[in-house]
Design brief:
Elements (H helix, E strand, L loop, with lengths): L1 E10 L2 E11 L4 E5 L6 H8 L7 E6 L2 E2 L5 H9 L1 E4 L11 H11 L4 H14 L15 H13 L5 E5 L7 H16 L3 E5 L3 H8 L4 E7 L2 E4 L5
Parallel strand pairs: 3-8, 3-9, 6-7, 7-8
Antiparallel strand pairs: 1-2, 1-4, 4-5, 9-10
Bound molecules: adenosine-5'-triphosphate (ATP).
Length: 225
């Protein structure tokens, strides 16, 4: 599904990684952890082509990212749902329209999609908040809305960057449960988090592998987390 082969990435002259290799197979669940600034967001952005490696290769769904033209990259990205760390809503649009945005941008007929949209909003428990504006939402509501928007086009893979940042333990469990449900539906899931308690809680519910990034290297973490 996604493969990094000897990937290097530098911001300007600052080398963040020089030789990262990884493989996420279809239907797998991975956590990505590591200290702040280690490169979790960067690695997620490399996964869906928002950044291209400065060395090595990233292959997504068997396609080499560096070889795709703009249209091919756009098609590929549709198969990946991204939950951004900062959620990124349009503040003057009601929640429902924010969640529907990937559908409207992709030219779907909203009258036909309405039932799916309602079902999805109900799945994340936000039916009663559908008309609220993003600034009126709590942190947990924003994170659930961001997850709903990320999966509205039925992606094969979900990349979630700190999806439980700024929420309490109960809400982080709820979000984790939604991600596990998506994985049980067959989606490949990668969750970047610094929250080791969340990873421990997940391990009793899903077969998850933990990747740890630190000192410019990526390792598979042991059972001692
Ligand atoms: N656009 C950019 N230009 C220059 N440096 C950047 C840029 N984006 C990130 N960095 C730097 O790259 C390093 C890794 O950043 P990144 O956001 O990937 O880390 P992270 O592990 O996700 O951090 P956090 O846990 O704090 O979100 C940091 O030192 C950061 O300052």
């Amino acid at each position: 599904m996604i493969e990094f082969e000897n990937v290097a990435y530098s911001y300007g002259g600052d080398k963040l990684f020089s030789d990262v290799s990884l493989r996420l197979s279809p239907g797998s669940f991975h956590f990505l952890t590591g200290p702040s600034g280690a490169g979790k967001t960067t690695l997620i952005r490399l996964c869906y082509g928002a950044l291209l490696p400065t060395g090595g290769q990233v292959r997504l769904f068997d396609c080499e990212m560096g070889e795709l033209d703009r249209d091919q990259l756009a098609l590929m990205r549709r198969r990946v749902g991204v939950v951004h760390q900062d959620c990124r809503f349009i503040d003057h649009l009601p929640l429902l329209d924010n969640i529907a945005l990937p559908l409207t941008v992709s030219g779907f007929d909203m009258t036909q999609e309405r039932a799916n949209l309602d079902e999805l909003i109900s799945w994340v428990g936000l039916s009663e908040r559908a008309g609220a504006l993003p600034p009126e939402l709590s942190g947990g509501e924003r994170q659930r809305a961001a997850l709903a928007r990320a999966v509205i086009l039925s992606p094969d893979m979900i990349l979630a960057d700190e999806p439980t940042g700024n929420v309490d333990w109960e809400m982080s469990q709820r979000l984790l449960h939604l991600l596990i449900e998506l994985n049980r539906m067959g989606k490949t899931v990668l969750v970047a988090t610094h929250d080791l308690a969340l990873i421990r809680a997940a391990k009793s519910q899903v077969q998850a592998r933990v990747l740890r990034i630190s000192n410019r290297e990526l390792h598979l973490a042991g059972a001692d987390l």
